[in-house]
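SAMPLE LOG
Freezer: B-3
Tube label: C17
Construct: single chain, 454 aa
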Amino acid sequence: MTIELLSDKSVREAYEADASGLRLVPDFVVRPASIEDVAEALMRAQKDRIPVTTAGAQSSTTAASITDKGILLSMRGLDRMSDVDEAARTIRVGPGALVADIKRKAAASGLLFAPDPTSEEESTIGGAIACNASGARTFKYGPTRKYVQALTVILADGEKKEFRRSNLEKNTVGYAFAHDPIDWFIGSEGTLGVVVDAELSLLPLPAEVVGLAMFSAVEDEALRFVIATRENRTLSPRCIEYFDEPALEIARKSVTGSALPGAAKGMVYVEEEVVDNVDATLARWADAIGESSDIEPLVFQGEAKLREARQFRHSVPATMNERGGRQSHVGGRKVSTDWAVPYRRLPEAIAIARRLTHDAGVPQPVIYGHAGNGHPHENFIARDSAELATIERVVEETLRVVVGLGGTVAAEHGIGKIKKRWLPLQMNALQIAMMKAVKRELDPLNLLAPGNIL
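STRUCTURE (predicted):
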């Protein structure tokens, strides 16, 4: 059956927005129902020289999943999930499957799909692979790349290719970047090919997990606790998350059970998988907290309480997305960062970022996120186009500092269209030339995901 290029305005406008705050209306929308449909769409695009941008649930914060050039290829219809192979600890999934659905299916077999982007209920595995997504538990488990064992990819000319991770412990054949071609596509944001099937590796599901929130009246104190926690040899956290005062205020409004103390100005939230017993685990954390806070910590034990903790974590970006959306009519939007520095430099980096914001005369951002990895999120709300320009200058100044501290301009959300201007802050001309060479080899007509990364 010949695929249909949908050009109705209402259909195209249904795909014009993601979580970036930008709006780009595609020329056409294609909604494939099979791998064969995807191959046909790309062959037709190649023949007619039409650009193609792949999208899942469009939860990208970098505008990677929207376009105003050519075809928006919506992969939501390819949401198949195989049965879990419990012996091999794997599952095969289509790119349109939601991350949360994959996690639930794995859990039903006593297994864990470890990557946990905060937007897991609204993000597809194809998108997670495209930007090498991570999340709170990345502190222990690492990002998506580590759990992708095989990919089926449709290349720009419509050819279907299979890639499988070698899992070799030793390999000295050729250049390192050519050892596992599967890694070319993970994090490539749709610029090198379209993922249509993935085999994911799973881990044993932890028997019990306990969460703990430690509160502080001073930001520096909370950030020092993050460093101390990371370096404490008696603790084994799977996440170390930080919430500044504005982020904590958002979280307070979202929780349905536990009351987050009003006197607190900041919070560090951790989780640990229990290997002995809960009392012993909590005792170790009590010793670690010691006298660093005179506010009683909160314990999140049991599935209901852990869901509550996830709820207040998710409430921060969700609320900031809503606030940003309310400014779009005057040229404003949410501006989010995902830079990271070596974890010991985090207090220094945040202090500098706050000073740069103050000096520019714009409101301070909400800061929260994966402090254990030296990876906070700054969420600004630009109230109009002039303030947007000022905030973007502040972000660039901050990123220059971050790179100088040995950090990265993007730690988990990718580059997309919004952040590609800052790629040269981190990558030199030779690195960028090598990426362009791979792009030319796999997509010689430069039709895939125009505007993303390069």
